Automatic annotation (TrEMBL):
Transmembrane portions of the chain: none
Stretches assigned to the HTH asnC-type domain: 20-80, 172-232
GO biological process: response to amino acid
Keyword Isomerase: no
A single cellular component GO annotation: cytosol
Protein name, as recorded: DNA-binding Lrp family transcriptional regulator
Gene3D superfamilies with a match to the protein in the record: 3.30.70.920, Winged helix-like DNA-binding domain superfamily/Winged helix DNA-binding domain
Keywords: DNA-binding, Transcription, Transcription regulation
Single GO MF descriptor: sequence-specific DNA binding
Amino acid sequence: MSLVPSAGSAAGPSAGWPALDKIDARLISHLQDDARGTYVQYAEGTGLSAAAVRVRVQRLHETGVVRTLGVVHPEILGIDCSATVGLKVDGGIEDCAGHLAGFAETTFVVVTAGRYDVLADVSCRTNRDLVGVLDRMLALPGVTSVEPFKHLDRVKSATQAPHTELRLNGSLDEIDHVLLRELEQDGRASYAHLAAATGLSQAGTRARVHALLAAGAIRVLAVVDPIALGIGELCGFGLKVGGPARQVAQTVASLPSTELVALTAGRWDVVGTLRAPSDDAAVEAYDQVRQVGGVAAVETFAHLAIRKEAYPRLSDLNLN
């Protein structure tokens, strides 16, 4: 699902967001294709100078329409376990969501309407670590139950394209870790800034960054806020499947409205999220999911308020 407005017309963002025109749409597309490209490259085909494009790209970032960040390969992070967890709460749901957002292992926390009061995505190193996270969740004030759906395979993620094979030539040193942490914070950090952080020359820093990117150690992504584009309805779903679960998951993943699709162990064979511009469009998207061959049952979860949306990071996991 490409989160860019139509190149032929201006976007209609929600109140509080800047109006986006077809040049912004082109620049967002360029950023999604190559988040560390140059302003000269982005300017091609826009009719603008590199300086004018720089102003536009900076505005997209400063207003929160686009975030450019580095996502470190899971093998470097030591992550080999992820799950979606449904929590039921007797009491302050917002307080619970706030506590969960503070967990280093949570990457997505949302208040929901449906079977669960809160849903949280968790990434950690091992199954034992996941059990520890579940115990900490159950100990939170007001939490009456936690139900995990362990991810067996992530078939689709709009902002987390599958990592390529890690191709490191030797182990990472402290300079590499500094660069990874800096790029996690700002995927478009300048080579001058990165050089100052590492003590290397700009040429040496550029070579290091290119080597990390080529090895698949980190991917730099431009993440677009869909709400800024007026695509505001985010919903979750769980599927029970009668037949090959992977085939169903792949078909559901091919639907343009779906953002996350994962094969899971637990109550559901497949869990996922979809995004739509309106309630009516969400109903239509759910109908498309229901009509996929092999789907035996669907349960939906309206996402009311996102309290965290992040990636596992070196600094959060205290890895060296």
